[in-house]
Every structure is written in structure tokens, then in C-alpha cells.
Amino acid sequence: MSNESSNTSQHTETPTQQKKHSLVEGSIKASLIRMTLPMIVGMFMMFTFSLVDTFFVSLLGTA
């Protein structure tokens, strides 16, 4: 009995495994946007931080 239950549990896929299959199916454009959007948001946040940091450093003056 325990062999049968372990065999059936091996054939189920986790959500992570199902997502791996979806990368090769569907629209390439949608996949690229979905994968690059977090990186674009992160780069925008770093740029914004640098811009605000530069502004505050410019207020320090020369003295």
C-alpha cells in the first residue's frame, strides 16, 4: 500500500514545475514582459534613489 501512495505522489506537479512549462508555450512578448518587468522596476527605483541622493548632497554646500 505505501508503494502505491508514494508512486501517485511522484506524478503530481508543483506550481513551480507548471510555470517552467509555460515559458515555452504562449506569446514570447508576454513572457519577456513578465520576466523583465521586475528588473525594470528595480532599476527605476535605484535611479530615483540616486537622483534624490544627488539633490540632498547638492544642498550641503562647500563649507
TrEMBL record:
Region of interest (Disordered), residue spans: 1-24
What residue ranges are annotated as transmembrane? 37-60
Comp. bias (Polar residues): 1-17
Task: Give the originating organism.
Answer: OM182 bacterium BACL3 MAG-120531-bin86
On the tree of life, the source organism's domain of life is Bacteria
Q: Could you identify this protein by its name?
A: MATE family efflux transporter
Swiss-Prot/TrEMBL keywords: Membrane, Transmembrane, Transmembrane helix
